[in-house]
Each structure stands twice: as C-alpha cells, then as structure tokens.
C-alpha cells in the first residue's frame, strides 16, 4: 500500500510546487531531470542532469546538513531540508584532508556535507527503485564521493546515493567526554540516511528498500550503522573489504589521539572544553595536518601494521549507552558485543579482494619490508606474524579464546615453512607478508563477521578474484596506502598474490569519474564488461531484496537461486562463498586451514582437510610424535580452551631450529605456494552462471 501513498504524494505535490519562492517556475520538459519536493514546510525545485544515451539522471552536490563550521565543528550535524531552487550539477568539494599528491597540503572545505544521486527514472506510478547508499573508504581520513559514478547500478533499476562525511579529527575527535563524544562523521552519514527516508521518493526511489554499502572503513561504518537501532531504516548492508570486526573499524583509545592533536596544535589537553574552544579557533588545515604523521622514512613494523590495518589516526569509537546529555548513541556497544546479542539483523553481504595488501607490500612498503626480511632475524615469524597476532587479538570477538591458545598454534610456521630453503627470494618473502596480512586483517574479519552476523540474519561472503584492466583502487582511494599505485613494477609478483588489491573491485561496480564528474571512459574488454555486469547485478539484486517475497517474485529466479544456494550447503556447515572471477561461482572452504589457524578452530585444524598441513607443522619438533597423536592433543587443548589454557605440547618457536630440512615437509610447501584457495583437496566449483549475461536482467 505504501507505494500507492507515495505516488499520490508525488502526484498531488506537483501542481502546488509550480510556484517556488513566489516566482513562477517554468514547467519542466516531461522527461527533464527536474525534481519538485514539498516537505517539512518547504518546497524546492532541483535541477540535475539527464544522460540521454543511457537514460539516467544525476544530481550533484545536494547539501543534507548545515555546514559544520564555527561552533558546529565537532558537533553532531544539523539537518538541512530542501528549499528553494537549486542547480544540482556540480559536486561539492571534498571534506578537509591531506592532498594525496602533496601531503603537506590540505584540500577540501568544511562545508562538505553533500550527497550525489544517480537515479534510473523519475517518479511515476510504478514502484520506486531500491536504493544503494554508499559510504566511501579512506580509513576515516581521506576520500570523497567524486569518483563513484552510478550509471551501471542505474541500468539495473537501482538508485545510488553517495554522501560525504567529516573525516579525521574533524569527524571523530573524542575526549571520551560529553564535550566531544566523537563519531560526528558517522552521525553525518546517519543524517544522510534520514534525508533518504524523506526525499528519495521524489527521485523515484523506494525508501522501504535502502541498503547501506561501504568499502574499507566505509564498510565498517556501514555495518556499524546497520547494527545500530538508529540505523534501522537500512534493509541490508553490503560491506566491501571492511567489516564490524576489522581492526580499523573502531579506535580503542580516542582520548589518546586527542592528546596527540593537542600536543601537535599547541592546544591545552585538559579540560576538554578548553581543548575544543582552542581547536575551534584554528583553521581546519592545522587540525588536518596534526592528524597523522606522514613521515614514511620513519616507518617501522608497528607503523606498517597500523597502515595496512587502517587503524591509525582518528576513527569511530564505542560511545556507550549514554553520552551524558541523553542523546542516543550510534555505537552503543563494541561490535563484538552487539554481534553476541540475540537480535534480528538485516541481511549482510561482505567480502574481500583476493590480494588486499599485495599492492602495498610490493609497492609502498617494498623497500622497508625487503630491508627487514634481509636484515632482521626471524622478521616474518616474530615481528610480522607476532605483530599481526597482537593486532587481531586486540579486536574483540575476532579470535575466540585468544589469550589461551592462539600464540601456541603454528601460525608463524605456516607462513614461513617453505622459506627455509636457502634459495628463497625476496619476492617469496614479500608474498608471505601479503598472504599473512591478507588473512589476518581481511579474510579472518570477513569470515568471522559472516559467522557471527548469521546468528541474527542472513549473511553472505564473497571473494573478488578477477584481475582486469578497469581502473584500480588508487583512482577511488587516493592517499590510502593499500591502494597506492606502485612505482616499483620491476619486481615479479609471485602468482599466488597477484590478485586484485584493496579497492580494485570498485571499478566493477561504479563508473570511475574524473574530478569534473565525467566518466573516465576507455576501452572495456568483453571479459571486464561481463565481470562488471555480474558484480553490479549482485549488488542490485541484493538491494532489490533477498528476503522480500515480492522482490523475489519480481526479480524472478536470479535472487532466489543465488542467495539461497549460497546459504544452503550440502554438508550443512555453511562454508560457502561466492567467488567473483571471470565468472561467478559458488565455492566452499574459504581459506579453510589458514582461518582455522588464526581463529583457533579446533574442528578444522584436526579434521581431514588440514591434517596434512598441520600434522607436518606440529610433527616437526617431536620427530617421533605421530601427527594423529598431536592432533588429538590439540583437539583436547582447544576444546578446553574456553575454560582453561593448557599448553600445547609443541612450542612453535622451537620448531625452526629442529627442522629436518625441507624434505620433511612433504607436500606442504607446494601446497602453500600453489593453492591460493587453501584447502588441501582441490576446490569443487560449480559454475552457476554460465554465460550469465541475461541472468541479472530485470
Ligand atoms: C623496488 O624494488 C627493488 C628490488 O627489490 C628495490 O631494490 C627498490 O628499493 C624498490 N624501490 C622502492 C621505491 O621501493
Ligand atoms: C587487459 O588488457 C590486455 C592487453 O590489452 C589483454 O590482453 C587482456 O586480455 C585484458 N584483460 C581483460 C580481463 O580484459
């Protein structure tokens, strides 16, 4: 019934709006990109751009909140309603951030709380289109809506709304006190969602079907919003390469960062009120420059791990139930705590690219890592894997039983055991860094988020594995270390880590736009076009509704087949995931043994699939110990780990010394280098979309 009501609103509203601000407005062409709204006591006329070739409509630079300047800096946003006449043809400036190309400079403007809309059709009597509300990535510190074009989604009857939000300390400064309770950047996004609820009907949208989607830190933000009672208008969440359990999702100690800002700007640390008064008087550039230390000459292992985890600088925090002013929080609980609660959740689609960190490892951090591998004894084993273990251990809910067992599992051995050959190259070593960081910082959080989310709602996992020629991550994520274009192309990247890196999937969903909002263009191969069609179709289908019976009927079998078959696994274990390569296929056992190691999954580690691998690693020290026996011991340890922490019979740190040489490792070495998809037995894949071009047509 609701859509009929909306149509009535839209139809009856029109004649009344022919007069705006007292001046007669010229009647629009029947098909022009002109919108009339009437709401909250204001009427407005908004003119955008129609793309005649593809038949979609874009509206740029619509302000959804008052400029957060002056006394409003660090405060929650104030809604702005549509009023008067407006040309929505130019994007807003980005929110203040470092210039990615000249890091000592600051770009952007504080008056940046704008959104862009790409709509397939103007309001009519038919049902409105579902909406994808997209939150760009950039570690809560960089990025804008500029590059993300919505023409492909619009071809699948789906609206794209992209919104800017405050970044860095301007968006997240928090002293843990009511003066600066933090998360105002998230509240910006929340306000944009309220705007969508109000206004998207006038743009031909359906406010009852709005998924919130993000990438990187934007994906973490999207999941925080979808988990919050305040974000309940979302009907689904699509989290690309970021999750509620990602190490970069939540800053554990925002007050410490506020202290750093105080030191770097010369403002008083306490009381919080004085800090804020002082910071409000500074030009925003000073605050942006104080936000992070860009000195890459000083990179050490900690800084490397912080950068690839996206956890440096200011970011979202857990507010607690009460901010002492009685205002509702957005993030009341730590994500791990929320996920434990028995509550209904909207469907979640999350996933990774298959080589998230490869570009950073072989590019920006190549020199540093090469140096470490060559000069620091046991760098991979101790500094890298040890450091990663600390990172993931700090994320609540990521590793069950973390303190008891985790350090005793042979994780480090797994990533180093075929490097003991004298002949291993630097590229091999870097490949291990890429593999270990990808597993710990991206694959594990994605997997665990799906597992925990599914206690209250449907959750789907994908892995994007297509290496193509469309724009790369740096186009969308300038300034993000993981996406930075590599200047060092001389090194041959080993095959198993050649997959797409962080952000490389974005051009397979969005049309990359240049800084003027024009498509970058260029040749698109038929393979790339097909992959893009599949991925856009996946997102559009998800937005159209995986649960809504009407949606299923409307979209035919495609939705039902895809999402249902992802959930129903023959063995009932729900280990399936969607592999997005040249074709889309359903695959199973995503990084099975590696995630078993990182996540302390006893059943995996001692089961048949991982037996060979683990038996070898555990059998190394006690040369007489039978793998079976060790496995039995391990099962006992792990099954007790919830209550007690007993030591495993094997200390991984000893194992390297006593290695009987590579021969003793049997097949494990070959497995490591050849089999990106991780299970010992070959993956069984059934192509589900042979020539899937027609499948996503609505
Ligand atoms: C590029 O790779 C080569 C070979 O490993 C290395 O010597 C050089 O320092 C690297 N350059 C940068 C900028 O990382
Ligand atoms: C990318 O471009 C190269 C060179 O034109 C071509 O050989 C290759 O097939 C393209 N890859 C895809 C996935 O289209």
UniProtKB/TrEMBL annotation:
Coiled coil regions, renumbered to chain: none
Carboxylesterase type B domain span: 44-588
Species name: Arctia plantaginis (Wood tiger moth)
Signal sequence extent: 1-18
Name used for this protein in its record: Carboxylesterase type B domain-containing protein
Statement: the UniProt record of this protein carries the keyword Signal: yes
Family listed: Belongs to the type-B carboxylesterase/lipase family.
Region of interest (Disordered), residue spans: 673-698
Keyword annotations of the record: Glycoprotein, Signal
One Pfam family in the UniProt entry: COesterase
Nucleotidyltransferase as UniProt keyword: no
